[in-house]
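Supplementary notes for students who missed Thursday's class. We covered one full example, reproduced here. Read the sequence, then the structure, then the short commentary at the end.
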Amino acid sequence: MSTITKNELTALTQSAFVALGLIPEDALQVAQILVMAELFGLTTHGVSRVESYGERLLVKGINPRPNMTVEKCAPSLFKVDGDNAVGPLVGMRCLSVAMQAAKEQGVAVVLARNSNHFGPISPYSLMAAEQGFATIIGSNATTTIAPWGGSDARLGNSPLGFGVPNPKGHPFLLDMAMSVVARAKIRNAFKAGESIPETWATDAKGV
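Structure (token representation):
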């Protein structure tokens, strides 16, 4: 096992996305989010996402050179069209728009469309908290969860997160899935041929 620095990992991740078609500036923003997730210990949403994002980039399922647009609907309300970009790139644009509007208006709401999996929420919340902003961040997701007592998937594992700055110490951050565990942890167990706790999933009978 070898150890590499944060800067080395960021550069490696950036180069991977450049090879997949992103411009260097965009690739760096995506790399920064994924490396921050790695440093948080969120390995399911860290640089391992190069593989899943890369697979979709290679088959043109994600647009590597997006033309994102921002529409101002009201002084504190904006819509961002991601043009099917890599999710963290859209997330960073939304965060930037939200913080600038909140700086001017005191509060802001930014809604995104035409995006993709945007990584974990906590990196965005941390960046905002470090600049004095409280955040509520969430996303929709594909249907993967059976309601309690049910056997068929009816709900999305939509992530939800909060961030609150703390002038006297570390900010408060909450980054959670709507299920017991993130789906990526189940996928990783499957790839490794490992079993999962019985509380992580339901069988065909809803058990």
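Commentary. The longest strand covers residues 69-74. The mean pLDDT is 94. If anything here is unclear, bring it to office hours.
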